[in-house]
Amino acid sequence: MNNWWYEKDGMATGPISQDGLREKLLSGEISSDCLVWHEGLESWCRIDTFTELSFMPPPLPVRDVNHESEKKELVRHQAASNPSPWRRFFARTFDMAWVTLVLFLLFEMLAKKLITNGTISQQASLNNLYIIFILAAQPIAMLIDAIVTATLGSSIGKLLLGIEVKRIDGSKPNLTSIISRNMSVLASGMGFSIPLITLITNAYQFHSLKKRGVTSYDSNKFDVVCDDKYKLSLFLTLTVILILSYAFYSRGTSHLDNYAKFSNYNYKADEQWYRSSPIVLSEAAQSELKGIESFSKNLPKDIGGDARYDSFFIDDRKNINMRFTMMEIDPNQIDGKFFYETVRPKEVVNACNGYRNLLSEGFNIYLVYSDKTGGPISSIYISISDCKR
Which residues of 239-255 are buried (b: 16+ CB within 10 A; e: fewer)? Predict the structure, then answer.
């Protein structure tokens, strides 16, 4: 076998065997246009003119993009472009908070309306209304969130935190697809807010986001992406306002149950009292209160002497007032003795002295006498207990 020589840096290098020359060619140390020579050749020739040396291996195979390392890199890329689980959590919490607050306010308005017109007159009925509201609140909140998202292009919480939901093909979702996604979030993401179920679903979706970069309800349907155009300071400010609003709302509606308990007594003279009073009566006292109201309404207009029955009302100091108008007598001359001896409405005194439960629970029963103008300055309050027999 001939010994070969090859050109390297303008100089003849060798001798080298044919196999050694082929290895240098395969390794890339020399190229296919390198000049070579062996004994018997008249001149130097390119190496690719020798069939015994010009053999080249097939091209390297194209790497499989589905290789495990490629998959890991893809997941890392998706994770870099997707918002963190906590960012998504706070956006969703904010959205649910403001929508639910609006629903609470609407519920309060509806409940008071139903109580006032007599549709709801028992505590059990109010409790049933509570249950219906709790069951319906979240689906309705998700529907409102979907409408806002379809209108603005994203929910308020997501807009503030720079989050956007797109279809898998990059297009914007329509109202129907947003509603479908929200209902999936409610079920598999929030577990219908059932305490233990919610904990399990939240943990599962958090794990899915960390491992695969996508939740189960978004897989093969939606992409959740983020950018740097978030408004953190505005988000924090609105969050504080929401918290204060909930605190104010909770304080302002703490008497809704009491409002319902007094709904049977439609005192037109002092309607605001039974709407806002924190006073709660026993059933026996409530029965007596109904009785005294019924009794007063059945009094004749002219009950004796110069006194005419005018109205019945209660105030926020636990005072039950039966108002009489004195048509001719100066009210400044009226006292309990004068009333009992002169006007002598025995049925009023005797009836009111029988309301022991109201009296034992701190209520006072007053006979209110005014001149015919009915002005507060000319009115005199006399306690039933001062009307001695």
Answer: beebeeeeeeeeeebeb
Burial of 16 (0-12, 13-18, 19+ CB in 10 A): middle
For the question of whether the overall pTM of this predicted structure is more than 0.70, the answer is: no
Query: Tokens at residue 115, please?
Result: 């109580």
Q: If you search the block for the tokens 């007032």, which residue do you land on?
A: 321
DSSP 211-243: HHSS-TTTTTTEEEEE-S---HHHHHHHHHHHH
Q: Answer yes or no: is pLDDT of 253 > 70.
A: no
Whether 362 and 296 have beta carbons less than 8 Å apart is answered as no
Structure tokens at 6: 């090859």
- Rounded distance between C-alpha atoms, residue 60 and residue 22, angstroms: 18
Which residues, listed in sequence order, are joined to residue 98 by a DSSP beta bridge? none
> DSSP string spanning 302-369?
EEETTEEEEEEEE-TTSEEEEEEEESSS-GGG--HHHIIIII--HHHHHHHHT-HHHHHTT-EEEEEE
Instruction: Decide: 165 and 221 in contact? Cβ < 8 Å.
Output: no
- Whose CA is closest to 222, among 82, 94, 73, 84? 82
pLDDT digits (tens, 9 = 90+) for 148-173: 998 888 899 999 999 989 888 888 89
